[in-house]
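Might you be able to consider the sequence and fold that I enclose below?
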Amino acid sequence: MAKHIIEENAAQAAYETIQQTNEKLDTVLGVYEQMMLQMITNTNLHNWLFTANDQNRQTFDQLSARKEVQEYINQITFSNSLIANIMIIPKNPEHLTFSTLSSTSVSIDYEAPWFQEASSSQDNLWLHTRIGGYSNAQQRPQLGLARLMKTSLNQEFVVLFEINQEMLNQQVRGIQLSPSSQVYITNTQNLLLQAEDESLILAEAELAIPEGNRGIMRNEDGEEFIVVAHFSDKAKWFVVGIAPVAELTEDTKIVEQVIYVIIGVASLVAVALSLLVARTMGSPLRRLQRLMVEGAKGNLNVRTSFKNRDEIGQVGRSFNEMMEQITELVRQTNHSAAEVLMTAQELSHSAKDTAHSAREISEATEQIAHGAATLASEAERGNELVIDLSKQLQQVVEANRTMGQVAADVHKVSEQGTGYMVQLNDKTRVTEEITRRMVEKVDQLQESTASIRNLLDMLTQITQQTNILALNASIEASRSGAAGRGFMVIAGEIRKLADQSRQSIDIVAEMTEHIQGGIAETVSVMSEAYPLFQEQISAVRDADMIFNQVRERMTGLVQQADKVTEAIEQLEKAQRVLSDTMASVSAVSEESSAISEEVASSSAAQLNTSDALVNLVGKLERLSNELTDSLKKFKI
């Protein structure tokens, strides 16, 4: 526990020390940021840079401006020995780059991530330690501070401070968490950004940063270290401190030795006290234990002989009093057990007689109740049958009435059907007569169309002859010369009329043929329909005969249905009387069954009580015998 407390306190103290170191380091970094701010806000520097990069100025002015810039940055560099280099890098590569070093040795990578980030931000950008710096003109590890400078003349430059890594060494040097502790700076990848040995720069730290920035870690040799770290929001790095746990907890060994001595002394004292207690208390307790064993076996005459007044003597006297009370209790128990046994025997005889009588009464009552229940069940069953019969009779009556109504309706419908069949027979005869006349008319029409056809043939012949005559007239008119020209015109017109007549005759002939074809189809259809009319007339006559027979049969059926309805109504009246009688019998049977069941239930309850009493008496008798047997082992 002391070791754990020391570890916790040491870790807390180390963390506070590292936190203060980090804050001190942030203060130093703030000094450089202040120098950077003074530089980028210097209006003279803005004017000198503009003049130095203005191609329209004279060469002397440009050289003078360059010299002023160079002297200004040299002045700042000489004011702080840890500043290795200051560079003013234009965002436009065509402009001049100023540095405290020779311009021929400076090499700037404009595509480098740090340059791109500095060019697009208005804040200070701390660049972690790099071998050779960021201008590629250094030999030793350097860290950097970069910031964008916008001049009043709309020019943009990136100002870079390269600071020796010795600045970090000075801030962490001399800080001790323990005699062999270490303090160093790492980035977020746990790579060293500061070390006294410059060859270790950017090497991976031996111990990882624990979760929560504090904890106990082991190295490759298994040695435990307290590791604490504090993150710098300004520079984005960790200030880490490690201290061996063994050095911090070395004082706990003294506490451990003292505790071992105390434990040894306490053990010796405990052994001595145990031997003393065993001698003074063990022997009387063993004698008391032997007496208690004798008492447990049933010997109640044992007593202790302790005379001393300590706790052992008190226990002995209490034991004697307990044995006296147990002896008196056993005497009383023997007397009570004998009386209980006698009482139990007498009660057992009485209970057995009572149980026998109750069993006989219960059996007789159960037989009576069974008979009454059977009678009630049969009466209930008969009542149910009568009720079912009544329902069925009601259904039969209703069905018979419905059948009578239906028969009457059918008889009425058959009367109407007979009348309709008479009318249908008469109309069928009229239809037959009309059809016969229609067939005769169609035959006559067919003969007329044949006459029209003959007439058209004759007109066709006349048209042909007229056409021939017109042709002959034209020939004769052409022979007559000028005198026959008028006759030739008339002959031409006659020929045209003959042609038109022929065309009209062809049309009329075609229409006549169409009409004649339709008449022929009509004659064919009428010829096929006439036998069907004959069959229909025959079917109508047969249906008329059937309707007459149905009417006669339905008349007899209606009369029989009326007789059946009267008989069923009489049967329904008798069934009502029987249903009332069965209901009365069922009620009486149920009442008798209920009374019998109550008596049987009372008898069964009495029988159960008698059996339970017999069982209790038997149990009491057994307990009395067992108690007597148990008391026999005690010696009074």
User: Anything to note?
Assistant: The longest helix spans residues 311-480. The chain has a mean pLDDT of 77. The first strand starts at residue 83 and ends at 90.
